[in-house]
Amino acid sequence: MSTAHTTVDEVLAALGDVDFPADKDELMRAASESGASGEVRVALRGIPPEEYANREEVARSVRVDPDSDLDLSPAQRAEQARQGGRHGQSQHLREAPKPPVEDELDR
Known about the structure:
Elements: H1 8-13, E1 22-23, H2 24-33, H3 38-45, E2 51-52, H4 55-61, H5 74-83, H6 100-106
Antiparallel strand pairs: 1-2
Helix pairs in contact: 2-3
Organism: Streptomyces diacarni
InterPro entries: DUF2795 (IPR021527)
Protein name: DUF2795 domain-containing protein
């Protein structure tokens, strides 16, 4: 699975009524109550189950379409894509090559 095809602005707009600090469950609930798109909910589902102090922490944690408006340099966006977002991000959202042993087992 790859990144969600949404923008940081769309994700943050879905969290308009959230009182911070808030945990992942609260963020997911707020997005559902605001009628957020499926893509926004997928992006939020991929963040680590932590408490977020503010909207900026959410923006840094969520993986979105690389062409979104994160106000990051191309190098910073590339680094985020390589690292899979914030530490602890859901493994299924990270793009990683197969380990050599899996290649051998697939042969």
